[in-house]
Design a protein that fits this description.
Number of strands: 0
CATH architecture: Orthogonal Bundle
Number of helices: 8
Oligomer: single chain
Largest sheet: none
Order of helices and strands: HHHHHHHH
Distance between the termini: 12 Å
Structural class: mainly alpha
């Protein structure tokens, strides 16, 4: 791969990651204008999963960690108590989405996008639950994990499955992202 192409791809990954991190700050603010919508739809997860699918694993991981941490520091969301579980969950989202789509030869078909997205969402929820169990050993249970990560967040799961694949597909068709 030529140095020019490598530099262009790196710059594109940096730009996508920066935009996704900015969206991690902006989207929750917009959703919180509607009572309980932020918690119900998990808007911060959307740009992290997009970054993971669009960029290489390092950028997805950075987006997951930085987006959540900056939002907590600047906007106080998530709270400090929620930070360990959410950073772990979102870091795994970005990392896993990228590694899974790469495992599928970076073919951005709807099928591959959905498989990568669903698997990344499951892995992130498992990792977030483990982190919460470690930090909150006396108060965290399996039923709390299922309730928090699947029952309460069911609308978020549906929203992510509806909007992320068409966004990734459109970015691929436009040539903005492509075979990594």
């Amino acid at each position: 791969m030529s140095q020019k192409k490598l530099n262009a791809q790196t710059l594109k990954n940096i730009a996508i990651t920066a935009i996704c991190i900015a969206l991690c700050l902006l989207l929750p603010q917009l959703f919180h204008l509607i009572p309980s919508a932020g918690k119900l739809f998990s808007p911060m997860h959307i740009p992290i999963l997009i970054c993971g699918l669009a960029c290489s694993w390092q950028y997805g991981l950075i987006c997951g960690i930085s987006g959540v941490t900056l939002s907590s520091l600047i906007m106080s969301m998530p709270t400090f108590a929620q930070l360990p579980g959410m950073v772990t969950e979102c870091a795994v989202y970005g990392l896993a989405a990228s590694l899974l789509i790469k495992r599928m030869n970076n073919r951005m078909s709807y099928k591959n996008i959905y498989i990568s997205l669903v698997c990344a969402m499951l892995l992130g929820r498992i990792a977030g639950g483990i982190a919460k169990a470690i930090f909150f050993t006396n108060t965290y249970s399996f039923s709390a994990w299922v309730s928090g990560y699947f029952v309460t967040s069911f609308p978020a799961i549906i929203l992510q499955l509806i909007i992320i694949p068409p966004i990734i597909h459109a970015l691929t068709r436009s040539g903005f992202i492509g075979e990594k």
